[in-house]
Amino acid sequence: MLANFANKVIVVTGAGQGIGRLLCQQLSNAGAKVIAISKSVEKLKELKESCPSIEIISVDLKNWQNTRDILSKFPQIDGLVNNAGVAIIKSFSDLTEQDFDDTFDVNIKAVFNVTQALLPKFKTGSSIVMVSSLAASRSFDGHTIYSATKAALDSLTRSLALELGPRQIRVNSVNPTVVLTKMGRDNWSDEKKSGPLLAHIPLNRFCEINEVIDGIAYLLSSKSTFVNGHHLNLEGGYSVS
Ligand code: NAP
Question: What sign does the CA torsion over 168, 21, 233, 222 have?
């Protein structure tokens, strides 16, 4: 159960599935006016059916100008969650220029674009939350490009915390390890693959979607009004093991 978000206008990207979808549903149930952005119209329609008060917007965030045109019509907002992301996991030698561009376009360029385009819309006291990853600061097999984008995202988080702080806009990130979305469960159910990683997590399990949502909700809420420029690692103690 999230804190009270009554009448708060919160924009969430990557709302079609996984973390973004459940986040939109829970924020809406907590009273927020949610504007849900994603690519697939079908998935957004399903979200709207489950929570009719959510406003849904379909746009490919890789399209810079299209995105800006849509965002320019938004109302004043209290929060933004930059959650949309892609992960192309391959060994370094197999990664292509297209993989590089596709990942950087969504995971960092689109975040830059969305946040800058929405700048005139943030109310005093707003909060921006980046959905980053533990891979921003730790190395994992096959994560070369993904990690680089998330490291860039963490850098953007810190720069914006500095620059937007005087306007009373806070900027933070959540940095989970593997999250047990449907894809996460499918990808990590093989013990041979998950065992070595779990051995480094003192809690000996991966992150549940609700645990990411609780972190995001905390950073969006009035419970974190002096937290700015922070990366909230959600990794069961991986970093101390
Ligand atoms: P997911 O299930 O793959 O969902 C990603 C969402 O982003 C989808 O709804 C997708 O839209 C949307 N999206 C992707 N590219 C887009 C684009 N060009 N324009 C508009 N929307 C786009 O991902 P997730 O697992 O929930 O992850 C959400 C965030 O958490 C990501 O930033 C990810 O890097 C981060 N994260 C995930 C994990 C994990 O283990 N799952 C761990 C650490 C961090 P469509 O539905 O239309 O494709």
Answer: positive
pLDDT of residue 184: 84
Query: Quick one: 55 exposed, middle or buried, by C-beta within 10 A (0-12, 13-18, 19+)?
Result: middle
Each residue of 38-71: pLDDT tens digit?
999 999 999 999 999 999 999 999 999 999 999 9
Q: Residue 4 domain-assigned?
A: no
Residue bearing the CA closest to ligand 1, atom 39: 179
User: For ligand 1, is residue 56 a contact (CB within 6 Å)?
Assistant: no
Q: DSSP E strands: which ranges in the chain?
A: 9-13, 33-38, 55-58, 77-82, 122-131, 170-176, 231-234
C-beta 89 within 6 A of ligand 1? no
Domain holding 45: CATH number? 3.40.50.720
Active site annotation includes 48? no
CA of 85 relative to ligand 1 center, distance in Å: 4
Q: How many domains does the chain have?
A: 1
Is position 74 within any domain? Answer: yes
**Percent of the chain at pLDDT exceeding 70:** 100
Range of the domain at 114: 9-240
pLDDT in tens, 66-116: 999 999 999 999 999 999 999 999 999 999 999 999 999 999 999 999 999
Does the residue 68 lie in any domain?
Answer: yes
Active site residue 146: yes
Amino acid (one-letter) located at 179: V
State the closest ligand 1 atom to the C-alpha of 107, by its place in the atom list counted from 1. 32
How far is the centre of ligand 1, averaged over its atoms, from the C-alpha of 86 (Å)?
A: 5
Q: Is 114 in the pocket of ligand 1 (CB under 6 A)?
A: no
Q: Decide: 24 in ligand 1 pocket, CB within 6 A.
A: no
So what's the pLDDT on residue 157?
A: 99
